[in-house]
Write a structure and sequence with these properties.
Elements: E1 13-17, E2 24-33, E3 38-43, E4 48-51, E5 56-58, H1 59-73, H2 75-83, H3 93-106, H4 111-124, H5 130-136, E6 149-150, H6 167-175, H7 189-211, H8 234-252, E7 257-260, E8 271-274, H9 276-292, H10 299-302, H11 304-326, H12 343-349, E9 356-357, E10 360-361, H13 362-368, H14 370-389, H15 397-415, H16 424-427, H17 433-446, H18 449-456, H19 463-492, E11 504-506, E12 512-514, H20 518-521, H21 525-538, H22 550-574, H23 576-584
Antiparallel strand pairs: 1-2, 1-5, 2-3, 3-4, 4-6, 7-8, 9-10, 11-12
Helix pairs in contact: 3-5, 7-11, 7-12, 7-17, 8-11, 11-17, 13-14, 13-17, 14-15, 14-17, 14-18, 15-18, 15-19, 15-21, 19-21, 21-22, 22-23
Bound molecules: NADPH dihydro-nicotinamide-adenine-dinucleotide phosphate and ligand LWLCTGZJ.
GO molecular function: Delta14-sterol reductase activity; DNA binding
Protein name: Delta(14)-sterol reductase LBR
Family: Belongs to the ERG4/ERG24 family.
């Protein structure tokens, strides 16, 4: 890359500010983009970022200034700190960040040294160096508005020497400002996006039609398509619209907590109305009243296809709206990934991270309300349909188990709604067709397949089988809830005294990684619990057909793929600290197996 006359030159070693913090690390300049006026720099752990000139300082000036400041304040303290090992067992993210920052500033960190440092941190915990880092780092205020951008992510960060310059690609990126920030294409890239756009709706149609057959094996040839007019029912569309509006109304009511999301790249923390539990309670009351007034909920079973079609149309319209509005969004509002410049891929993956109409967060609402609560409503309707079809006074054991298990899952998700704010979808994924369709169509019309299946295919369960399945569900739920709560509590308050017994690995971002407790058993204990629950949802349906096992199979694929997406994202974010975590916690989801 040819460097124009700029302050820092390619190859210079300088101090670069870390995004979202006022901490500086030693970095190497890789290049300068005159169009965007950004320097590409590489950190010692291999992370590459683009920084503005104001976020870069020269090494000499920085060290002289900070040293003289810290010396004049407390020379003795600095000496004693460097001699004595850590004694404290409390963690704090600022302290963690400080420890890393101080090391980054005052010593060079070859990988062997760095590994030792991390190991010490795991075993001995951290030195109390918070004040030192404060002295070393410049005040956030002095830096002007926070304005750092992550550089184009290209999987694992590589050393500067190993990375060939790509002038054409750079020029293209500079010419298309809305493609910033970008990330490696997921889901099979551009071709994959075409495939998923066609396959996902076709699959929903296939399983719905399959569920109506007497032999609904997934291996059966697809049933013949019903005439086109059977897909459409204006009344079904009205019901779906009413349901979504009703949920939207409950969401905007000033009832319940206003929770803060995780800090965005801009440093801003959005607020979310987390009143999901209230919403499902009110919905249950309204459904009970409607039943009492003679409403026939078995309509949902008899018009399953038409309701799915109506919801699909809404999800497509919503995705078009999301795509169009994202074209006007500022680059800081776009998600990493989903900004490839390819219309179809971006439409599928979603571009805008948190599309909002005033305070109404579209992604949060769609993920947590109409589809999720709709899932329980549909399951309940299937239980009524089963009773009607087989002239029963009560639903079968299998139907009761499926209903209760999935209701528990949804109610738990809504009760702990705040925890969704630390999940991948909310923090990293753009909102486009994938999530709009996933939330509104996929969840309510395929996660209900076990109940849908049981209406026409009853499966008698013995009492020991019921007990065994309930036990399995409770074990899965325990692992799922405990591990999710542990991570959520830690991310929200890393110095939470209740978590002080846990070991952590500091990372260069200032955030730490849990390395004991649930997150020390496997890298995704929450997925393990979720998978065990999925097994308990399918078992009540027996083994005669594959259809009720569809969720289990899909879920394994989804979670394995999510785990690998998360792995690349975390490696990019945390560099060597993530590798250290992976060395310490060797298995991804199932201990000693995977
Ligand atoms: N029923 C369904 O269809 C689905 C259910 N789920 C469930 O939703 C829940 C959320 O899943 P998902 O969003 O995929 O993933 P996670 O909730 O596991 O979030 C992953 C993030 O957690 C943080 N993290 C990872 N390891 C550690 C660690 N050791 N210490 C601290 N933080 C860590 C990282 O974010 P950072 O460091 O940036 O905070 C990482 O990006 C899961 O329980 C999953 O089973 C998910 C998908 C579908
Ligand atoms: C194939 C396809 C269309 C994929 C879209 C994936 C989505 C269906 C899922 C992505 C993450 C999800 C989560 C839940 C539902 C499914 C989707 C939207 C979730 C809300 C279910 C309830 C849980 O308690 C949960 C809150 C942990 C969970 C969060 C992730």
């Amino acid at each position: 890359m040819k460097m124009p006359t700029v302050k820092y030159q390619k190859g210079d070693t300088v101090m670069g500010r870390w995004p979202g913090s006022s901490l500086y690390y030693q970095v190497k300049v890789l290049g300068f983009d005159s169009k965007s006026q950004l320097y590409t720099v590489i950190y010692k752990d291999g992370t590459e970022l683009e920084l503005k000139e104001q976020d870069i300082k020269s090494v000499t000036g920085f060290q002289t200034r900070s040293r003289s400041r810290s010396r004049s304040r407390s020379p003795g303290r600095r000496r004693s700190r460097s001699r004595s090992p850590a004694r404290t067992t409390r963690r704090s993210s600022s302290r963690t960040a400080a420890a890393v920052a101080a090391t980054a500033i005052t010593e060079s960190t070859p990988s062997s040294r760095r590994d030792t440092r991390l190991k010490d941190t795991v075993e001995v915990r951290l030195s109390p160096v918070k004040s030192e880092a404060k002295v070393e780092a410049e005040s956030e205020k002095n830096q002007g508005p926070y304005n750092l951008r992550r550089r184009k992510a290209d999987g694992d960060a590589k050393p500067a020497e190993a990375k060939p310059d790509q002038p054409e690609k750079k020029a293209k990126e500079a010419a298309a400002p809305s493609t910033i920030p970008s990330a490696p294409l997921d889901f099979g890239g551009k071709i994959g996006a075409y495939f998923w756009l066609l396959f996902l709706p076709a699959w929903v149609l296939f399983v719905i039609l399959q569920g109506n057959l007497t032999d609904p094996s997934l291996f059966n040839a697809p049933p013949p398509l019903p005439p086109l007019d059977t897909f459409w029912d204006a009344q079904a569309l009205c019901f779906v619209i009413l349901w979504i509006l009703f949920q939207a109304l409950l969401y905007i009511l000033p009832v319940g907590k206003l929770s803060e999301g995780m800090p965005l790249r801009s440093g801003v923390r959005l607020k979310y109305r987390t009143n999901g539990f209230f919403a499902i309670m009110v919905s249950a009351i309204v459904v009970a009243v409607a039943l009492h007034q003679g409403a026939d909920l078995t309509y949902i079973h008899s018009h399953f296809l038409q309701l799915a079609t109506a919801t699909f149309i809404i999800s497509v319209l919503l995705s078009i709206y999301l795509y169009v509005r994202s074209r006007y969004a500022a680059s800081e509002e776009l998600a990493l990934g989903g900004n490839s410049g390819n219309v179809v891929y971006d439409f599928f993956k979603g571009r805008e991270l948190n599309p909002r109409i005033k305070n109404f967060d579209l992604k949060f609402f769609c993920e947590m309300r109409p589809g999720l609560i709709g899932w329980c409503l549909i399951n309940f309707a299937m239980a009524l349909a089963e009773m009607k079809k087989h002239n029963l006074d009560a639903p079968s054991y299998a139907m009761i188990l499926v209903n209760l298990f999935q209701l528990l899952y949804v109610v738990d998700g809504l009760w702990n709604e705040e925890a969704i704010l630390t999940t991948m979808d909310l923090m990293h994924d753009g909102f486009g067709f994938m999530l709009a369709f996933g939330d509104l169509v996929w969840v309510p019309f395929t996660y209900t397949l076990q109940a849908y299946y049981l209406v026409l295919h009853p499966n008698a369960l013995s009492l020991p089988a019921v007990i065994a399945i309930v036990t399995l569900k409770l074990i899965g739920f325990y692992i799922f809830r405990k591990s999710n709560s542990e991570k959520n509590a830690f991310r929200r308050n890393p110095s939470n005294p209740k978590l002080s017994h846990l070991k952590t690995i500091p990372t260069a971002t200032g955030k730490s990684l849990l390395v004991s407790g649930w997150w020390g058993v496997v890298r995704h204990p929450n997925y393990l619990g979720d998978l065990i629950m999925a097994l308990a949802w399918s078992l009540p349906c027996g083994f005669s057909h594959l259809l009720p096992w569809y969720y289990m199979i899909y879920f394994i694929i989804l979670l394995v793929h999510r785990d690998s997406r998360d792995m690349s994202e975390c490696r990019r974010k945390y560099g060597s600290a993530w590798d250290e975590y992976c060395r310490t916690v060797r298995y991804r989801i199932i201990p000693r197996v995977y």
